[in-house]
Amino acid sequence: MNVFVQTLVDGIGRGSTYALLALGISLIFGVMHLVNFAHAELITVAAYVGYALSTRGVAWWLMAPAMIAAAVVASVVTERVAFRWVRKAGPFTMLLTSFALERLSQALWQVLVSPKKQSFSGPGWAFETIEIGGIRLEVMDLVTILVTVVVLAVTAFVFRRTMFGIAVRGASEDFDAARLMGVRANRVIVGAFAFAGALAGVAGVLILMRSPSAEPTLGSDWLIKAVVAAILGGLGSFTGAIVGGVALGLAEVFLRGYLPEGVMERLTDAFVFVLIAALFVLRPQGLFTVRSAERV
Q1: CA distances for 283 relative to 141, 207, 276, angstroms
Q2: 266 pLDDT band (50/70/90 cuts)?
Q3: How many other CB atoms are found less than 10 A from the CB of residue 184?
Q4: CA nearest to 25, candidates 98, 97, 103
Q5: pLDDT in tens, 141-168
Q6: How far, in Å, CA of 44 to CA of 37, rounded?
Q7: Torsional class of 156: left (φ above 0), alpha (ψ -120 to 50), beta (otherwise)
Q8: Residue 84: Cβ-neighbour burial (10 angstroms; 0-12, 13-18, 19+)
Q9: For position 294, what pLDDT does the model report?
Q10: Contact 24, 39 (CB under 8 A)
């Protein structure tokens, strides 16, 4: 029973990180009908900012907001420099643009910094454990779950109670109708990119607290899981992104916990994707059905 609870908490902790990334991908898909493959590169931006600050002796409580701010700025800059110019092009052009940004990001870090992994110090409490009811749990798992719950509560408030959130929800259902009602396209899209950047920044901080290192391919290591989680829940569905992320994290951790040790490392991802493929055969639209949106 203890092992089951520990595995469950670990799975929810990992899935919470996937959920934050998938939520950002679903948000951009909702307003632009774009699966942004450059989204996970915001984690890489946060990582290198964290590395630069750590080498200067900055404490984690100051590093964390700086890393989130860097992810927000990077997300807004990519929208302004790249995506705005191809917004009215076909979906394939926008998809190629996101791929190009991902590759460009990795190449720039390799040239400007180093192709090698740059490690730095994480918070001392990250791998400490506490005992609750006779069950030992990692502090980092509990912090990840708590932070994710708070962020999701803030997200729910923003998109249900604020004019910005209502505008984004309206735009995700029918952008043309939203513009006729007075919604400003540029403002909504920039706001969506900024919010998605904040979600990626929070996810990046949680990832880097556990594995404090920066390398050019860091974002791509998380990209496929974030996209799969978003598709699993139903692209464009905020609730689906959360459920898809947590479900993917639980599937990964439980399979690693219960598969034979010799198969664990090599076949876990394969088993996860087989399960997801089976789900898509039964329910191709994902766990949640999303009304189609008119793209700008």
Answers
A1: 31, 31, 10
A2: low
A3: 13
A4: 98
A5: 999 999 999 999 999 999 888 888 887 7
A6: 13
A7: alpha
A8: middle
A9: 42
A10: yes
What are the helix (H) ranges across the chain?
2-32, 41-54, 60-81, 91-112, 139-161, 163-173, 175-180, 185-210, 218-233, 238-258, 261-282
Task: Say which CATH architecture domain 2-117+130-282 belongs to.
Answer: Orthogonal Bundle (1.10)
pLDDT tens-digit series, residues 23-66:
999 999 888 888 898 998 999 999 999 999 999 989 999 999 99
How many Cα atoms occupy the beta-carbon half-sphere of 41 within 13 Å? 22
CB atoms within 10 A of CB 258: 11
pLDDT tens-digit map of 243-252: 989 988 998 8
Contact 219/44 with Cβ under 8 angstroms? yes
Supply the angle between the helices 41-54 and 60-81 in degrees, to the nearest 10. 140
pLDDT of residue 296: 42
Query: Could you say which DSSP state residue 287 is in?
Result: S
Structure tokens at 238: 């905020």
CB 50 within 8 A of CB 120: yes
CA nearest neighbour of 206 among 140, 279, 278: 140
> Cβ(257)–Cβ(3) under 8 Å?
yes
* Interval 205-228 mean pLDDT: 90
Structure tokens at 24: 């950002």
Q: How far apart are the C-alpha atoms of 279 and 102, rounded to whole Å?
A: 29
Domain ranges in the chain are 2-117+130-282
- The tokens 């639209």 sit on which residue? 285
128 burial level (CB within 10 Å; 0-12, 13-18, 19+): exposed
Question: Which residue type is seen at 204?
Answer: G
